[in-house]
Amino acid sequence: MIDLEVRLEEPTSLPDVIALLVEHEGSAKVIAGGTDILVDMKNGDLRPKLLISLARVEGLDAIEVIDDALWIGALVTPNQLVADERLQAWLPALVDAAQCMASYPVRNLATIGGNLCSASPSADLAPSLLVAGAEIVIYKQEGEMRNPLSDFFVDVRRTMLGSAELLTHVVIPKPPPRTGIAYCPFKLREANALAVASSAARLTLEDTGAVSDARVVLGAVAPTPLLAARSSELLVGKKPSSELFAQAAAQASVESKPINDVRGSETHRKALVEVLTRRALEEALHRAQTGGAA
Ligand SMILES: Cc1cc2nc3c(=O)[nH]c(=O)nc-3n(C[C@H](O)[C@H](O)[C@H](O)COP(=O)(O)OP(=O)(O)OC[C@H]3O[C@@H](n4cnc5c(N)ncnc54)[C@H](O)[C@@H]3O)c2cc1C
Prior knowledge:
Structural class: alpha+beta
CATH superfamily of the largest domain: CO dehydrogenase flavoprotein, C-terminal domain
Strand content: 25-35%
CATH topology of the largest domain: Enolase-like, domain 1
Strand order of the largest sheet: 4-5-10-6-7
Number of domains: 3
Radius of gyration: 19 Å
Number of strands: 14
CATH class of the largest domain: Alpha Beta
Order of helices and strands: EHEHEEEHHHHHHEEEEEEEEEHHH
Shape: globular
Helix content: 25-40%
Bound molecules: flavin-adenine dinucleotide
Number of helices: 11
């Protein structure tokens, strides 16, 4: 049961949200789409006395191009991501990730900010944002700060955000030419299923066709999204080939740290990482060669 004693405030500005969070520290929580927090409250895992809705705060629900970067407001929904033509050209892997989330009605409610702030290891949006080198904008009483998304995740369902801090935007830099990014999750059903394991891969190619930059990030196989550093390094400076991708995928599997749970065993997840990483690298290469992300 959700505690009916909970009160709802709907401030219209970021300073007002922060003022409420400071005033009610320890008993207030921010709510965006509510698709995670209301489940936590229903399960009794969270009992806030005050919910502070972000819905009326202006400027958080748009996708804009500013200074050669794509700024995505924290309230942008997965369905908005899917429909945005600039994002389809710029980072199609994020569109794929948004498209495979949950179900259509949930994708209309959920937000990118909530997905990142929930910090579930199996969440779909973080891996492709991480390989793309995304940053986040954090708003607090002292002002705004911009941080790499790679610093954001601290542990299972824990981020670097303080109790009176908000994520306001995700900033995606324009990918360099000849860059391809792909996201491959494995889920037990087509709808309303979290990833058992996932892999996002990024490849940037030189004129010669060799890999000048590579990143592999794994989801659902560690407490936070995991950069497979050695797998990524192994790709740089080499010509892409099936053998190289098989080697990098096997290395990613070695670097993964999955657990056994209801959705999959450690062994199954390690095997999945190898397959998903190879597929993600192949798709990233295709996109890099055909201008998919540039
Ligand atoms: C049926 C179902 C299926 C799902 N399937 C998937 C799936 O396939 N893949 C997937 O990744 N997720 C899935 N989810 C999880 C969920 O939809 C996402 O994590 C969603 O993006 C969370 O966003 P929200 O706006 O609903 O967050 P909320 O529930 O409103 O908030 C989540 C948490 O983040 C905090 N928060 C929210 N916004 C901010 C902000 N801007 N700044 C600071 N803190 C903030 C809240 O205080 C709360 O702690 C599913 C959920 C359901 C109910």
